[in-house]
Amino acid sequence: MNIAKSIEMLADSSKYDKCMCKDKSTNYPFIYETTTPKGKCALMKTLVSNYCKGDCKYCVNSAKRKIRRERANEGELANLFMKLDKSRLVQGAFLSSGIDKNADFSMHRLVRTAEIIRKRGYKGYIHLKIIPGASKDMIKRTAELADRISINIETPKKTYLYDLVSQKDFKIDIIRRIRWASKTIKGTYKSLTTQFIVGASEESDKEIMKTSSHLYERYQIKRAFFSAFNPVKGTPLQNKSPENSKREYRLYQTDWLIREYGFKFKELVFGENNNLDLKMDPKYKIAITNRDIFPIDPEKATYNELIKVPGIGPTSANRIIRLRNQEKMNKSLLKKSGAALKRASPFLKIDGSFQNNLAAFSKI
Ligand code: SF4
Predict the structure, then answer these.
(1) Is 3.90.1150.10 the CATH classification of the domain at 3-267?
(2) Of 7, 51, 127, 141, which has the fewest Cβ atoms less than 10 A away?
């Protein structure tokens, strides 16, 4: 099989790995539009092999499935990438793999491909996946070659992982590798990310958020991705219902509050089932649950108080602070700050008066 055909097939097997990838290019199914730390770009995204010893019940590459298996040649894969780069069709690569003969066998092939690309003078963006159970040396070499490395945690607790997978040890193969990877890139510009599969087991949003917050604090994970479960034919979960994509969206919104707005896990609001409210924006939910702290006065409020107001984000909070030092706070100044006034008004006190009756909250 020629390399482009082989990569086309392997790229399809990699589609469940999230990296802010949006659309596949129509002409090249292994090219995805994405956002990297360096901005928007197109990535060549593929597995180097879809041979896998893993039996993850949700995965298209599970060893239990009878599918065509392919192992790309490292040199040919690197050549293809260099051609795409030269033609300015891509601005980076995201390479992953199934657990082929063993974790380090797969890591070696990922590393080898990236080494060839680097040896040919490519200095741009490379994202390499770390295979659960990979050795410390392989993780170190991966981090030397890549701008971003990632290792999928899959579930927030070991009990959920063991419902889905028989070979991966949660603490040893995953958490320990996250710790090693984190130590390896400490003090560099490089980033480490992870991914949860959502809805394949019985995990709650609260458990996911607790674990992701822990990963951010303890291991300086740059960001977590969430992938809503979709049943794959020929797997033990083929008859399980797909996860509601709204759940994935709410998890991303909540994650954003933690990473960009500085919310703490303990401030998040979950329902009785420990899941996020699918019908309401999570920041709004937090605000109306804590209505006693509102309304706040934008003339005097601290950054941390302003950021809690729905409709005010980090940029508008900073602008409010800057603008109020120049003139007295009023509606038009708030508008100038970029705050979403309609959303923010019920939570604000301007010129000594509430912008809306707080009782309105109960109707929201
Ligand atoms: S180890 Fe990775 S590629 Fe293999 S079955 Fe599990 S999730 Fe799929």
Answers:
(1) no
(2) 51
Q: Whose CA is nearest to atom 1 of ligand 1?
A: 54
pLDDT at 364: 42
Residue nearest to atom 3 of ligand 1 (CA): 98
Question: What residues contact residue 221 under an 8 Å CB cut-off, 6+ apart?
Answer: 178, 182, 192, 193, 194, 212, 215
Which pairing describes strands 148-150 and 191-198: parallel, antiparallel, or unpaired? parallel
Q: Is 207 helix (H, G, I), strand (E, B) or coil?
A: helix
Q: For the chain, give every residue range classified as CATH 3.20.20.70.
A: 3-267
Cβ contact 97:110 at 8 Å: yes
Q: What is the mean pLDDT of the chain?
A: 91
Q: Backbone phi, then psi, for 307, in 5-degree steps?
A: -65, -20
Measured from the CA of 62, which atom of ligand 1 is nearest? 5
Which tens digit of pLDDT belongs to each residue from 156-190? 999 999 999 998 999 999 999 999 999 999 999 99
Q: Whose CA is nearest to atom 5 of ligand 1?
A: 62
Ligand 1 shell residues, CB under 6 Å: 52, 54, 56, 59, 61-62, 98-99
Residue 191's H or E segment, with its range, is strand 191-198
